[in-house]
Amino acid sequence: MTTEEPAIHAEHLHKRYGDKIAVDDVSLRIDPGEVFGILGTNGAGKTTTVEMIAGLRKPDGGRVTLLGLDPRHDRGKVRQVLGVQLQQAYLHGALTVAELMGLYRSFYPDPRSSGELLELVGLEEKRGVRFEKLSGGQQQRLSIALALAGRPRVLILDELTTGLDPRARRQMWATIEHLRDEGVTIVLVSHAMEEVERLCDRVALLDAGRVLAVEPPAGLVALAGAQNLDDAFVALTGKQLEEAE
């Protein structure tokens, strides 16, 4: 284990919704500059975990620090260093791509340029298009561009390439690799095995709100005695990959 201060340190996180325990004693240590995957089925607690890390949801128990900050109590400071892209984009449908870019860039003292952001996600030709007129995949890409507007030191991406065609998916993978080269710490929630294998330095495998293992992708395969990550997923969770989609 590295002695460097972690970029993200989650300790004993708990979250309950009524009778359902969504997150059950999750602890994670994510190092600076690491691409860290969170892998699991629907209902495994992935999104709730990253929402608590981002300060968007209050834990019932446990604590989180992000670059030494408390995501809920130090919200102003955290907003300047954290970018978040969630599965559902809650953006004003009548605003154009350019207007949304201008709005989000105004939140930061030294934002990336609109041109750079749109080039990163392949939306240069959509500047004048209203958000509601974009395809689902284009809305997803715009949400990622907005998450990058403030040059975040930590980036949380929930199902990065859902709804993207193969070309756009590979373009987004190249963008993530570029950000990793810049030293950005990235938390990637995914059930796409090829994506996890290509991008992630380590992966936390969640099931029923608990961490089953934290290993590099190849380490999960070895731990399960499997031939590939798909088979390792099934062996370790007892569930088919389709149940994660």
UniProtKB/TrEMBL annotation:
Q: In which compartments does the protein localize?
A: Cell membrane
Pfam families (UniProt xref): ABC_tran
In terms of CDD domains, this protein maps to: ABC_DR_subfamily_A
Keyword Nucleotide-binding found: yes
Give the matching SMART domains: AAA (SM00382)
Bilayer topology term = Peripheral membrane protein
Q: What is this protein identified as?
A: ABC transporter ATP-binding protein
Keywords linked to the UniProt accession: Antibiotic resistance, ATP-binding, Nucleotide-binding, Transport
Is the keyword Nucleotide-binding assigned to this protein? yes
Coiled-coil region list: none
PROSITE patterns, sorted: ABC_TRANSPORTER_1, ABC_TRANSPORTER_2
ABC transporter domain boundaries: 8-233
Q: Which GO terms describe its molecular function?
A: ATP binding
Alphabetical list of PANTHER family matching this protein = ABC TRANSPORTER ATP-BINDING PROTEIN
